Amino acid sequence: MVGSVMDNIRNMIATVDSIVKKLDPKVIVQRSFYDDVSGRLFVSLVKGRREYEVMLSGSSFGNGDLTKVEQSMKAGVDRVQHQPIG
């Protein structure tokens, strides 16, 4: 059971990485952290010296329809470009 949960988390992270690379190859997924208590995946996007945090619900990955995940990541990639440098 634990292995299955870890596989699901790895799949979520790989999905996010893939989506970000398609949207903007210059944006890096610096860190991904899944919080078991809240059921959310926290993702740090970095482009140059700009950073932006995105939070995704784990349930967004469950039904096979990644539209919500793609929309959230597109918004995150767009926002990272407008973040103050620091």
How would you characterize the overall build of this protein?
The structure is a single chain. The chain contains two helices and three strands; from the N terminus they run αβββα. It is an alpha+beta fold. The chain has one domain. Strands 1-2-3 form a three-stranded antiparallel β-sheet, covered by helices on one side. It is globular. The protein starts with a helix and ends in a 6-residue tail after the last helix. 15% of the residues are buried. The mean pLDDT is 89.
Key terms:
alpha+beta; 42% helix; globular; 28% strand; 2 helices; 3-stranded antiparallel sheet; 86 residues
Helix content: 40-55%
Helix-strand pattern = HEEEH
Derived from helix and strand composition plus strand pairing, the structural class reads alpha+beta
Instruction: Indicate the low-confidence ranges by residue numbers.
Output: none
How many H/I helical runs? 2
| CA-based shape | globular
Give the total of beta strands: 3
Quick rundown:
The protein has 86 residues and is of the alpha+beta class.
